[in-house]
Amino acid sequence: MADSPPKTATPSTASTTSTPRRRIPLSQRKLDLLFVAFFLINIGFITYIVDIEQLIIPDPAHFVYPLWPPAPLVDLIHWWGHTYDPLLIARPVWWKMTIWIDALGFGPFYAVAIYAYLTGRDWIRLPSIIWASVMLTNVAIILSEEFSGPHATPHPIIVLLANLPWLLLPVAVIARMARRAHPFTEPLPG
């Protein structure tokens, strides 16, 4: 049998090698601080206040204030919906499904991602790419409704600007995570 050429490391095999690695300090990963801030805003306000309100209150025209979220925040959410975002008030079934995805999938992801990004854990790479892909898909569908669906906003520029972080940050996460198999670590020198 003829000798086969020596194998070279490919991106898929390079990530499984046992080369000793060290974490890149957070001070050298400034973009990760932006991601952590975004995840904190999502878990602390969007997912478990804004979104959960839409599951707890099925009809904003007829409801009793729930224990959570607090009444002033419910009023703020309803003001935003009545003023800028009729889709938020209409709450069609498909919309509520995106809210369930956020509450059951994204919320736990944000908690884990905050830890992983702060402490430099490479295992969050694939979950980050999955989160970003699903988020981009959801936001694209939502914005298509916001601009041309039965519940289109009368203020498309404001709604686009309000949703822009949920388009730009997932793209940035994909770009950050797709570059390297080990986004938070590097080989030890030597």
Averaged pLDDT, please? 92
Instruction: Identify low-pLDDT runs.
Output: 1-15
The main β sheet shows up as:
2 strands, antiparallel
Number of domains: 1
Q: How many separate helices?
A: 8
Global Rg:
21 Å
Q: Give the strand line-up of the largest sheet.
A: 1-2
Q: Give the strand content.
A: under 5%
* Total number of strands: 2
For the termini, the CA-CA separation is 37 Å
* Overall shape: elongated
Helical amount: 55-70%
Secondary-structure element string: HEHHHHHHHE
Keywords:
elongated; two-stranded antiparallel sheet; 2 strands; mainly alpha; 190 residues; disordered N terminus
Write the layout of secondary structure elements.
Elements: H1 11-14, E1 21-23, H2 30-56, H3 71-83, H4 86-90, H5 93-119, H6 125-148, H7 156-163, H8 165-178, E2 185-187
Antiparallel strand pairs: 1-2
How does this model look, in words?
By secondary structure, the chain is mainly alpha-helical. Residues 1-15 have low confidence and may be disordered. It has one domain (28-182). The protein is built from eight helices and two strands. Strands 1-2 form a two-stranded antiparallel sheet. The two termini are 37 Å apart.
Write a compact overview of the structure shown.
By secondary structure, this protein is mostly helical. It has helices at residues 11-14, 30-56, 71-83, 86-90, 93-119, 125-148, 156-163, 165-178, and strands at residues 21-23, 185-187.
